[in-house]
Amino acid sequence: MKTSAANPVAPPLNPIELIDWFAATARPLPWRAPGITGWGVLVSETMLQQTPVNRVQPIWEEWMRRWPLPSDLAAEPQGEVVRAWGKLGYPRRALRLHEAAGIIAAEHGDVVPSDVNTLLALPGIGAYTARAVAAFAYGKRAPVVDTNVRRVVARAVHGAGDAGPPSTKRDLDDVDALLPDDDASAARLSAALMELGQVVCTVRSPLCESCPIAHDCAWQHAGRPAYAGPPKKVQKFAGTDRQVRGKLLDVLRGATGPVQREQLDAVWSDAGQRDRCLDSLLVDGLVEQTDDGRFALPGEH
């Protein structure tokens, strides 16, 4: 287990206990099944960003049936990829994944790379996704940091009720300090930390009595103090541009070809917000306008 400048003293977590707990209790998610390729993991990690597992699972399964290789997805028109993305939200992820699939097929032999830096060079793949693919698909030692992992570290290591504002270097150093030196154990611990935050060490109702590391948790030893850091931003959805964009895309996903402007106008009464959202979809490449003024998903006119 490594230490870092952010953690000069070895952290209290026992990796063996956490790895054993994960091996015994991990949810049987389809992208964790034996034989799942780096492509399957990349698709799952892209879909899971800010989206619950129960919404992702059926769509992931359908994508993997239709497009088991990056080249299969790359061969599809962009519009069909956006349609298949359904209601997962943040549909630009679908376009970036489509673009990345083309590069993987053309430049990497249709195999998702295992190297973090090579992954980071692909469209739409950031620090989290690159490390998640390296760890979960290829069993590499890579600190994987998401909101759940940050919360586990804040409580178990630092004794805080929750994590404060994110800091890429500090957060990566925190998790790197916890990981065993060997690739296989580090990758399993990365998965275990994330699972712990998702199902046990939750935001509002942590199941401390079920936690495999409760006896070593700094937050427990401190009496479980309430979070006292800066207030967190709460993301609302109703009435936002995200909701309007989704409604506009719903019309196009349900159509067999280009639609008239009136069909889009009918989904939202605020003309100013509706026009702004339609313009943003055009700029993002999620919607295209035909020569006769109708609207369609990309490539479907």
Automatic annotation (TrEMBL):
CDD domains: ENDO3c. Its EC number is 3.2.2.31. InterPro entries: DNA_glycosylase (IPR011257), Endonuclease3_FeS-loop_motif (IPR003651), Endouclease-III_FeS-bd_BS (IPR004035), HhH-GPD_domain (IPR003265), HhH_base_excis_C (IPR023170), HhH_motif (IPR000445), MIG/MutY (IPR044298). It comes from the Bacteria. Keywords: 4Fe-4S, DNA damage, DNA repair, Glycosidase, Hydrolase, Iron, Iron-sulfur, Metal-binding. It catalyses: Hydrolyzes free adenine bases from 7,8-dihydro-8-oxoguanine:adenine mismatched double-stranded DNA, leaving an apurinic site. Residues 47-199 form the HhH-GPD domain. It is an enzyme of class 3 (hydrolase). Pfam families: EndIII_4Fe-2S, HHH, HhH-GPD. Its cofactor is [4Fe-4S] cluster. Belongs to the Nth/MutY family. This is Adenine DNA glycosylase.
